[in-house]
Amino acid sequence: MNFILRGSVCYSKSPTELVTLEKGYVVCKDNVCEGVYTEIPEAYKAYPVKDCGERIIIPGMADLHTHAPQYTFRGLGMDKELLDWLNAYTFPEEAKYEDEGYARQAYQKFASDLKQTTTTRACIFGTIHPHSTEILMEQLEATGLITYVGKVNMDQNAPDYLCESSAAESVIATEKWINTVQSKFKNTKPMITPRFVPSCSGELLEKLHDVQEKYQLPVQSHLSENMGEIQLVQELFPQSSCYADVYHQYGLIDKECKTVMAHCVYCSEEEMKLLKENQVYVAHCPESNANLASGIAPIRKYMEHHIPIGLGSDVAAGSKLSIFYAMQDAIVMSKMRWRLVDNSLAPLTFEEAFYLATKGGGSFFGKVGSFEPGYEFDAVILDDKNLETLLQLSIKERAERMMYLADDRNIVGKYVAGKEV
Amino acid sequence: MNFILRGSVCYSKSPTELVTLEKGYVVCKDNVCEGVYTEIPEAYKAYPVKDCGERIIIPGMADLHTHAPQYTFRGLGMDKELLDWLNAYTFPEEAKYEDEGYARQAYQKFASDLKQTTTTRACIFGTIHPHSTEILMEQLEATGLITYVGKVNMDQNAPDYLCESSAAESVIATEKWINTVQSKFKNTKPMITPRFVPSCSGELLEKLHDVQEKYQLPVQSHLSENMGEIQLVQELFPQSSCYADVYHQYGLIDKECKTVMAHCVYCSEEEMKLLKENQVYVAHCPESNANLASGIAPIRKYMEHHIPIGLGSDVAAGSKLSIFYAMQDAIVMSKMRWRLVDNSLAPLTFEEAFYLATKGGGSFFGKVGSFEPGYEFDAVILDDKNLETLLQLSIKERAERMMYLADDRNIVGKYVAGKEV
User: Fold this and answer.
1) Which of A272-290 are b and which e, b meaning 16 or more Cβ less than 10 Å from the residue's Cβ?
2) Which of A116, A339, A348 would you mutate first to test chain B, the one with the most B CBs within 10 A?
3) In terms of domain of life, where is this protein from (chains A, B) (predicted)?
């Protein structure tokens, strides 16, 4: 598609460079951004222009970590820490997705609500059930969003009703699922998804690495979220030097492999080194880490180490799908960490949070999350007229207010890779 | 007014007793709640019944601390700590309220947005300007909410453009304002409002105590919010043993005086003793304390000390007027404090947050914030059908989800002291 959006443009070049332009023209040619201009360049004069008036045009946001089956109990059951929370609320709910009818109804609400957010790209956990996960992918495909989806693997330390019978069985089901879905959808792709180290045997992790290599798929999992979890990993894999080392030993953190790890609240120096060397993405999920009293990840330290980072909603340990909220929480929690834990790490700025939400997380999907030339054309149009104020605000200030105050009513248009959705 | 609301009833008796009733009848007689019943008692059979169906009926909430003139810049300027934030953003904005036209426009938006929340009672700061504060009171009166409003007093350590010329001048203006407004409005009453200790001379505090005694008005101010602020108070009043002691010495924390103090992030044992002995209310403003990187107040400790507590939105250091958000933040910040600072203080529960938002803060206004017999009839009707889920939820679970997920669309009815607003 070739077209131009005109409006109040706002995008990131880097964590410290937020570019804004009043009455800017964002040019889309063959679904790719050709850049932002104050006047339409000669080459694009024939393109149709959609005038967004005073509305704000931002790049689409990336949600690097969320759990679709948990959407049914969002906003509930926040009174436990991770391992107890999984057993009390999460595993019983995820077990219901063995029923494809349940899955279809639940995932339809999830997908349609996700569509109403600023998110254009996402990494999403399903459950261990291949057919239900395929249904989730069908629903997501219908939204027009571009996503990676994982059938979850778990062969130990899970309740019987949600535990695959063996590593072999888990991998057979996973391969079968991959073969079914990998060419079935245009925008919805499979992802290798060991739940987390405690629920995966060494054999399973090893075999999943083989599958990853065979199909060249990206990987998502959880890392160093909670202190009890970290201790459990050490007990289960006593030969490992740290939590990340387990994934590394089994080839799931590796230069040959595109991996995103949720949380990373307590990464050691060694883990940071592994993340950096292998360019593993951190999916920072600040609301989730607060709700489950896990702690606050030292995001600035990871940024200083040049570890790639994006944001995650992590429903249902996070209550909301909105990445605006994740931005807000990332900032506020970085302030609390600065105040209460370590004042050598300055709080995150709005510019940094905006970067993490767009280009930071978007880069997991390629050239995504900016309006620089060559980026896939993901855009969101925001209308803030219901938030009127007597102040004359800059585009940056208006965008900052959206982070604190916007809801689905403020999102009035959305494009994914050049297509309006 | 005599009437009955029928629906899914939810209210607090105490921090640990949340009462819920399906298809309950909440009876209002002469604007006072007569209790909640499973069937309509004989004495009320003639009352009209409003059937709210599956909707949730909760008591109105109290916002014990917010700044109306700051509403114009909500969601902006969160990059500084308290004293710098006041100088950079707050004082310049408050100075604009010398212009009554500006005040009228700005306050109209504030009042109409406050009406759209669950708040039925509030303690509200204006500015130093008496006429503009009167305009704020007019706008609030029109909403039907019941509020206390303060013309702010500041005679030192404020920029020239926002500093009253002397204690005497400040008090003359305040008395004149009180005489004008105290019988002008039914639901909107004046409150003594020294901004905070740093901006008030000892002479001003002394004179404000005289005014308080003369007119028997309640008092609102700020206490121990930020470490730089606390140090400044110690420098300004070296003879005081603690920040609260300054208010105490000048009679503004006193058994004879109904006082609410915002924040109390860093109260010492001595301050807690003063608060308890004089039954001073703490207005806990968790979002504000996080946004300005002030810290996290030890609310459970205050509860254990039997200090009365309610919640405050504290716009514009808080970005949102919603007390649902204040509840959410109170819980989440108590988890972070438990995790990062002091694991002897358990995180707040949903029941406790609901209590603080309703009966806890409501009690500042009398018998307000519950559906127990004898309470003034403040009620809010919540519709959660847009948050549909496949799960069968209890009323408590539905109310908990509202705390995380509700916005103004979910608030479909509101009564203040028996009157629909």
Assistant:
1) bebbeebebbbbbbbbbbb
2) A339
3) Bacteria
Arithmetic mean of pLDDT, A140-149: 98
- Residue A34 in tokens: 């050709």
Paired tokens of B49? 């019944």
Side by side, the strands of the sheet bearing A17-29 are A32-37, A17-29, A3-14, A49-59, A379-382, A411-416, A419-420
Q: Tell me whether residues B336 and A293 touch, CB distance under 8 A.
A: yes
Nearest CB to B404 within list A72, A319, A389: A319
Out of B79, B341, B390, the one facing A106 most closely (by C-beta) is B390
If asked whether residues A256 and A355 sit together in one domain, one would say yes
Q: Which residue of B has its CA nearest to A81?
A: B335
> Which among A341, A365, A389 is the end of a domain?
A365
CB contact under 8 A, A340 and B335: no
What whole-number distance in Å separates Cα of residue B86 and Cα of residue A112? 42
Residues B211 and B271 in one domain: yes
Q: Which residue has the tokens 């207005």?
A: B283
Residue B141 C-alpha, separation from nearest chain A C-alpha, in angstroms: 22
CB–CB contact B79 A105 (8 Å): no
Identify the pLDDT of residue B1.
Answer: 87
Domain endpoint, select from B323, B342, B365: B365
Under the banding of pLDDT at 50, 70 and 90, the label for residue B267 is very high
A336 plus A377 within the same structural domain: no
d(CA B320, CA B310): 16
DSSP 3-state of B56: strand
pTM of the model: 0.98
Same domain? For A205 and A256 the reply is yes
CB contact under 8 A, A75 and B404: yes
Q: B135 and B49 share a domain?
A: no
Distances (CA, A) of A267 to A234, A270, B73: 14, 8, 37
| Subunit contact B336:A340, Cβ cutoff 8 A | yes
Q: What are phi and psi of A28, to 5 degrees?
A: -115, 120
Q: Which of A72, A290, A349 sits opposite B391 (nearest CB)?
A: A72
pLDDT in tens, A257-301: 999 999 999 999 999 999 999 999 999 999 999 999 999 999 999
Residue among A16, A70, A73, A78 with most chain B CBs within 10 A, to mutate: A78
Question: Are A293 and B397 an interchain contact pair (Cβ–Cβ within 8 Å)?
Answer: no
CA distance B338 to chain A (A): 8
Q: Are residues B396 and B295 in the same domain?
A: no
- On the question of pLDDT at A417 being above 90, the answer is yes
Check whether residue B286 and residue B406 sit in a common domain.
no
* Same domain membership, residue B360 and residue B396: no
- pLDDT at A349 (0 to 100): 98
User: SS3 sequence, B157-219?
Assistant: CCCHHHCCCCHHHHHHHHHHHHHHHCCCCCCEEECEEECCHHHCCHHHHHHHHHHHHHHCCCE
Domain with A287, as residue range(s), is 69-365
Tell me if B400 and A76 make a contact (CB, 8 A cut-off): yes
CA distance A397 to A7: 15
Contact B405 A320 (CB under 8 A): yes
Q: Which of B97, B116, B294, B339 to mutate to test the interface with A (most CBs of A within 10 A)?
A: B339
Distances (CA, A) of A281 to A150, A300, A356: 16, 14, 11
Residue B350, domain CATH: 3.20.20.140
Amino acid in position B195: R
Q: How far is Cα A172 from Cα A178, in angstroms, rounded to an integer?
A: 10
Number of domains comprising chain B: 2
CATH of the domain at A25: 2.30.40.10
Of the pLDDT bands very low, low, confident and very high (cuts 50, 70, 90), residue A1 is confident
